[in-house]
Write a structure and sequence with these properties.
The protein has seven helices and six strands; from the N terminus they run H-E-E-E-H-E-H-H-H-E-E-H-H. By secondary structure, the chain is an alpha+beta fold. The chain has one domain: Glutaredoxin (3-Layer(aba) Sandwich).
Length: 213
Amino acid sequence: MKIAFKYIGLATLLLLLLSASAFVAPPKTVHDFTVQDIVGNDVSLSKYKGKTLLIVNVASKCGLTPQYEDLQKIYAEYQEFDLEILGFPANNFMGQEPGSDEQINSFCADKFGVTFPMFSKISVKGKQIHPLYSYLTDKKQNKTIKAPVKWNFQKFLVDKDGKVVKSFTPNERVTNTTILAQIEAELTKGKDGKKIKEAIAAAKKSRATTSAE
């Protein structure tokens, strides 16, 4: 009888250990996700800790596709201040991103000179929604906003700690002064915020001077 109880106890302990090992804590920030880049490499978004992120679902055959130019423009201007733009192709809206990852990558580089990180095509809504976008769009998960993706080129602003700050609608261009102000507000948070703010102001002044010449 004692032997039987002993084996039951061991079996229960083993079951508990297996259950514990199978349990995965739900993601608390964007940094908890691993995604695949557009050439097939796994990328942990924890590499972007300390950076401000703009996460965008993109498409090649949409009326908003020219927004790639806007995204690349602000990436070129703000990357040095730790802004990263992450592009996620998605074919959820009227089949406007039908290409392969290779075709999408070539299109972005050739047509718009995109240099910001691009990732493998995913689903941003519905039953096949990628876990990252499930997190971004669901307030129960991200603790900030409920923002289902309405169309191509919806933008999510994420702070340096990987927490969702705000969502911008597809029609809102990132070159809009209101959006830029919110991006700059995130970039200038933290102990070096004052220096970064001054550097951004100096860079703007330099660009304005160059344009005027």
